[in-house]
Amino acid sequence: MSLFLLQLRGELWKLFARKRTYLGFAVFLALELLILLLFQLPKVQRAWRHILENAGYGFDQYFSGITLAFQVVLWTTSLLGGLYLALVAGDIVAKEVEDGTLRMTLCRPISRGRLLAVKYVTCVIYTFALAFFIGLSALAVGVARQGTGGFFVFQPLEKLFVIYDFGPGLLHYLGSLPVLGLSMLSVTSLAFMISCCNVKPAAATICTLSYFIADMIFRGIPYFESIKPWFISTHTESWYNSLRTPLPWQRMIEDYAYLLGVDATFLLIGFVIFSSRDFKS
Q: Residue 104: is it exposed, middle or buried by C-beta count within 10 angstroms (0-12/13-18/19+)?
């Protein structure tokens, strides 16, 4: 175990020493500032006022930093989060194969299973680090600009409409971040599996994004309503349920059991493909 942790530390050091690893963090921070700036436009605020006051709630109380933070996370993680996770996880094996450094690594007394385990755990840590960064930075910027207040949770596509005071709302918001990380892990797992194949790093990223974009498109087609549970995006969006009261535990357990099963399948397929590859030639 101590050797595994030592190898994991080296892999994390290697990952976070790359400048492009921080690209997702920088882009999300810039996007958060832009979205929060646009939320200050009078026309945008009138639309929010209309929604809140028609529901019988005060605009000044619930148009708060935590409400805006949730909106930032809501509209950015599905596509942009997937992009940067696919970029990192699709790169972690394929790039070393392309550069030829993996052949030297495999000359060491280390099994391919341990090598992949170290790299996958590194991707998992990056996934949760990105999820927490998005959520906490959006909260910090939102509260700094708009202050504290009630938490207005509004996601019409999921029929989610909940009101909290700041204290309970903050607990629900923070509790949703690890669940968001679990949802984003499916993108990481697919990109990692493709990275284990004989493909270029860019191809692994593009294939992962193409799959998840197609999955979201098919899920949104009304004629496919009866087969909606077949699509991964149906289950990844279950992180919204962590903001409901009471929590729909049964539905969340079913969704994340499905996702973890999918992740394990991707990882197993990647291991089988990687184990059968010849790196000598």
A: exposed
Q: CA 77: distance to chain centroid? A: 6
Half-sphere exposure of residue 215, counting CA atoms within 13 Å on the CB side?
21
What does the angle CA 20 – CA 22 – CA 25 come to, to the nearest 5 degrees? Answer: 135
**pLDDT tens digit string along 174-193?**
999 999 999 999 999 999 99
Q: What three-state secondary structure class fits 162?
A: strand
Q: How many other CB atoms sit within 10 Å of the CB of residue 15?
A: 17
Distance CA 96, CA 94 (A): 6
For residue range 40-53, list pLDDT tens digits in order: 899 989 988 888 88
Task: Specify the pTM.
Answer: 0.93
pLDDT of residue 280: 67
Residue 214, token pair as written in the block:
């197609």
* One-letter amino acid of 213: I
DSSP type of residue 164: E
Which tokens belong to 111? 């099994």
CB 233 within 8 A of CB 219: yes
Residues listed for the chain: 281
122 contacts: CB under 8 Å, gap ≥ 6: 8, 11, 12, 15, 92
SS3 161: strand
d(CA 205, CA 88): 8
**Cβ pair 154, 54 in contact under 8 A:** no
| CA pair distance 190, 187, nearest whole angstrom | 5
Contacts of 182 (CB under 8 A, 6+ apart): 239, 256, 259, 260
Buried residues in 63-75 as b, exposed as e (16+ CB within 10 A): bbbbbbbbbbbbe
Q: HSE, CB side, 13 Å, CA atoms: give it for residue 7.
A: 18
